[in-house]
Structures are given as structure tokens and as C-alpha cells.
Amino acid sequence: MNRGSLKPVIFEHAVLSIGVVYSIFPFFWMIITSLRSSGDAFNSDSLLWPTKWDVVYNYTQALLTTPLPRFLANGVFVCGVILLLQIATALPCAYAIAKLSFRGRTFLTATVICCLAIPFQAVALPLFVGLAQLDLLNSYFALISPFAVSVFAILMLAQYLRGYPDEIIEAARLDGLSEKGILWRLILPASKPAIAAFAIFSVAAHWNDLYWPLIVVTEPDLAPPTLGVLFFRSEESGDQTGPLMAAATIVTLPLVVFFLAAQRRFVQGITMTGVK
Amino acid sequence: MGATLSICDLTKAFGQTHVLSQISLDVQAGSFVSLLGPSGCGKSTLLRVIAGFEAQDQGTVSVNGHSIDHLPPRARNLAMVFQSYALYPHMTVGENISLPLEMERLSPFQRLPLLGRYAPGQRMLMADITAEVRKVASVAEIDHLLDRRPAQLSGGQRQRVALARAMVRAPGLFLMDEPLSNLDAKLRVTMRSELVAMNKRLDATVLYVTHDQTEAMTMSDRIALMMGGQILQYDTPEAIYSAPAHVDVARFIGHPSINCIPALNDAGVVVAEAERCNIRTVEREQKLTLGIRPEAFALRPAPTAKAVLGIPVSLDRVELLGPEVLLWCTAKRTGRVLVAQARAADHRSMVASGLLTGSLWLEAYGSGLHLFDPSGKAIPIANALSAETKAPLVAVS
């Protein structure tokens, strides 16, 4: 880099830094508030750095006085089952759209794309009414079933599979593999990067989802972490910000760990490199 | 054992484009047959119809006398080697080769991951399969690569793995779609002879698609030359070269390609380059094409009596190929570019004795001449008088 371009670089970094501070500050505040005593949080003298630490109390409160571990287990279970179902439904559909020729393929693809435009809020009420009629509210089924098929997953995997060589699939047909066998033994292993990338989207979306659990779950035993924190907040009064932020930190942590673990695959999947 | 393949009146169109029209072909058991033609002539489509990847519009494909049109690819008892090799990328070489056998011999339960190995009889079957994979791998000289993945192999090694995977089921018919086109020139020559050796050793029928005439000429028992979705000639390599049935066959085969000269039919005597030639035909057609192979031409400092055709030319360019030279000439009367091939030693001695300085004639004698009618079909030369008869050169017009 030559000297002439130093000024624009400083400017660019300044702009970017504002963005970084803007997105990191809430987390920063959440974490330091979880480390200090509740009274300290709104004290203007110690807004950015704690004066009175209260780590042990905050975290033991968060973990012991509320069923937070139970909320976390609920979240892991619900997100895990949703992800598995989404992959199980999206992979065959994506394979069919990308690699098989059958009557109505164009129509099916167009329909799938149209479905992407339907906001979840539009179907939430009919789903709620349906689940209520079947007496299935307050169940894991209610939390999971609306998300078992992901249109986004179908389109993303189909796009990825279009790059898979046709000749390999033909060789497999000659070697005696059925379409099911091709899906299981060739397409699934080849789709790993795309599946990992999708998993991040899916898990992040459903781990952080508050809207749907709030509608279908009123029982604390079934609550996923986001809803659990909400219960926690309403049970305890507003001066318990320390334990509340400790709970929020504990809820956020698994997602960060998950993202770091899947990050490399994520980048691979997003850039959609070929299978060669 | 090799299978016989017989194709009858096969027609295939993609929308309005006719890719294959009325293809008929009989391949004998154990023979090596090439489908040769320029790209887009329909040869790969024909192979894909035989394999069952595409359905034909009309016609039948039979193996050993039984129609296979209703069968899915896996039930057709044939193996294919693809241009890109199409190895399964996340399986090892050993798994790639054993997959066809596992699919053939194990039940769905025995194939289950993890659980499958506890199925009754699975261990014995797998031991047999592993032994056969080792045997085929040692024949293909890849037994040291069984634990590698395709990405870790060179092009030549991948080619051998693809061959081994095709051979392991011992099918009656091998389909090969330009399997050598991704290899470097040296390896291609080695693999050519290995493929022929495999064909003889396994006594398997091979249908080999290529656009490379050298491959087709050197490897095949017979060549089916395809153009525009039709088979123009199906014959031995010798006959394809020395007795082309169509002007397009004559043009496609041979390097450099054949000299084609428009000719007129003057009451049974062929007139080319404004010369009455000592070539006669019984055809009535007026406009003919006279084809002369480069090696049938000889460059002479003066016209000789035994030539059936002599064209005054000027020599433009000499290309040395090694043992041979190509002599690029221009016909003096029409400006047509003609090429002759001569032995390099003969050419050197002519240059040394100063014979190539004055006016020159390109002469043809009895052999290496072909006549084609306006539709391109070969027509017999009635009495091209051979060199021995020493017929007088017909007078210059």
C-alpha cells in the first residue's frame, strides 16, 4: 500500500470501527453487567466498567433459582430435531429439483421459490388454530412441526447440487444404486459443506426465535432459552439485572461456540465451491 | 464372455433437432468397435441411449439377441468408462471398485452402514468381494492405491481406477466415452495398447466413442464413422481409409486430409483441373468429386506417360514431418491448393539434383484415387488404367 492512499484507509477503518462498536456494544454491556452487582448497572459513574463485582452471585442465581439448564436442554433438543427434519426433507427435494428430469419440475421449482416469499407471521395464526384444535399446544410437536420443511434449505441445497457432475450420478445408476442409494451414499456426503452452512442459519434462527414459542408455549418446562429468559425477567423484579444478564450470557454462549465450530465449513458452503 | 450388440433403426431427437436418424449397427461378440466422428455428430448420444440414460424415440437396442429397451441402466449388464472418469469423490479407490459388486451381491440389509456387518453371511460375501477387488486392482496395476481417494490420484491413475471399476463386474459390453481424451499424449499411446490388450484378454465387447482418428484406426476391429446423426460407413480401419464410401469419410480420415477436386464427366471420361484424365466412369452424373490422397500424388519436373492425371503446379511450402515431407502446391490454372506427401529422402535427392527449380507437375497414378457423385457417395472407377498398362496420357485440352 502506498502513502497516497493512507488517508482513505484511515477513513474506511474509522467508518468500520463505528460499525463494530455499534454491533458489539450490546454484548459488551450484557457481559459486564452479568459480572457486576445489579445496582451498578445503571450507575452513570460505572457505565463502561464495573466498580462492584458480583460474578458468583449473578451466575448462581441464574443457574439455580431458575430452570435455565432445562431451558437450554429444550433449546438444544428443539433446534436439533428441526435441523434434522429440515435436512431430511430438503435434501431429496433439492436433488430432485437439481438433477432429475420429470414432468412439472419447472412448476415445482417455481412453487418452491414462491413459498420463500410467504412470511411466517402470515401462516402463524392458521397454524396456531390448527394446533389448538388438535389439542397440541404446549408440546415439543408444536415447537418443531412448523419448521420441519425449510424452503430456504431446498433452494440452497439445490443450487449447491447443480454443480455436482451428472456423470457420477450416471455411473452410480449403472453400478446398481437406486435413487435412494445415490442420495444416501453420494449426495449426502457431497453436500456436507452446504449442510453445515445451512445448519448455522437454521440453528441461529431457531435458537433465537421468541415469536413462535411465545405463541404456542405457556408451560415453563417446555420453554426454549429465549422464552425462559423472558419468564425469568417477569418473575423477578427489574433490579435483578445482574442475574438476568448472566442468564442471557449463558443463553448466547452455545450459539457462539456452535458458530466458531462450524465457521470454516460455513465459509466453504457460502462460497459454494464445486465438488471436484 | 463378450456380448453381441445390435442396434436397429434407432432414432432420437431433442425437440426439433434430430440427433440420431435411423442408426443400425451390429457389433460382434468380443470385438472392439469405435464410434468415430466430429463433435456433435451424435456418437455420445448413441452411447447414452445404449446405456439407458436417454430413451430413444424409435428403434431397438438388443444385447445377445434380446431387446434391452425396457431395462433400467443397472439391469443392462454393461459398464461404462466416462470421459471425466466419474469416480465417487469421497470413497477410497477400493470402495469405488467394490461398490458395483456390493450392489450386485449384498441384500439391502447387508449393505447397511454399521449394522450390515452383523447380517448373516455378510462377512463371507464381503471377503469374496475384497478378494475380487484386489485381483482386478492388480490387473489394472493400482493395488498400491486402494486406500487413496480419487483427488489424490493422477489422471492416468484415475483412468485405471475407472477401468477397474468397469471390469470388476465382468460385464459383456463395455461402453467407453472418450476415456483417453484427458490424458497427456505419451500416456494416451500406452493406454491405447492396454485397452486393446484388455479387450482381447477379457474377450469383452467394447464400444468406444472417440473423435480422434488415430485412436479409432489403431485400436478398432471395425469403425463406425458417424456424421450428422448417421453412420456413413461401418467397416474395418483399412477399408475406411482405402475405400471410403462417402466423400465426408474420405475427408475426415487421413492427415493431411484428402485433396478433393471438382471434376466433370465428359461422356465417361473424368475431366479435372481442365485435364482429361485417364479415368473412366460408367456413371451418368455430370458433376463429380475426385479425391486423391496426398501420398498418391507425386511431384515431377516433367509429365510422365504412366500418370492418369497430371496437374501443372507451383511449389509453395515444404513441411518436414520426419521420415516424410508435405509438399504444399498451388495448381497453376485454378489456384487450388493441393498437398502431396513424399518420403523425405526422395525429396532431398530431388532438391540436390536441382529438379524442383523449374515448372512442376503433380501426378497421380492408378491407386489412391476416389470418385464421388454429387450426393457424396463413392462411385466405382471403371478403368483407371494401372501404371503397368502404360496408357498414353490423354491430350491436354
TrEMBL record, chain A:
It is found in: Cell membrane. Its main location: membrane. Residues 72-262 form the ABC transmembrane type-1 domain. The chain crosses the membrane at residues 9-32, 71-95, 107-128, 140-161, 182-207, 244-262. The keyword Ligase does not apply. It is a multi-pass membrane protein. Keywords: Cell membrane, Membrane, Transmembrane, Transmembrane helix, Transport. InterPro entries: MetI-like, MetI-like_sf. It holds the Pfam family BPD_transp_1. CDD domains: TM_PBP2. GO terms for cellular component: plasma membrane. The keyword Transmembrane helix applies. Belongs to the binding-protein-dependent transport system permease family. This is Carbohydrate ABC transporter permease.
Automatic annotation (TrEMBL), chain B:
Keywords: ATP-binding, Cell inner membrane, Cell membrane, Membrane, Nucleotide-binding, Transport. It is found in: Cell inner membrane. It comes from the Bacteria. Gene3D superfamilies: 2.40.50.100, Nucleic acid-binding proteins, P-loop containing nucleotide triphosphate hydrolases. GO terms for cellular component: ATP-binding cassette (ABC) transporter complex, substrate-binding subunit-containing. It is a peripheral membrane protein. Its main location: membrane. Pfam families: ABC_tran (PF00005). GO terms for molecular function: ABC-type transporter activity; ATP binding; ATP hydrolysis activity. Residues 5-253 form the ABC transporter domain. PROSITE patterns: ABC_TRANSPORTER_1 (PS00211), ABC_TRANSPORTER_2 (PS50893). The keyword ATP-binding applies. InterPro entries: AAA+_ATPase, ABC_transporter-like_ATP-bd, ABC_transporter-like_CS, ABC_transpr_MalK/UgpC-like, Mo/tungstate-bd_C_term_dom, NA-bd_OB-fold, P-loop_NTPase. Belongs to the ABC transporter superfamily. This is ABC transporter ATP-binding protein.
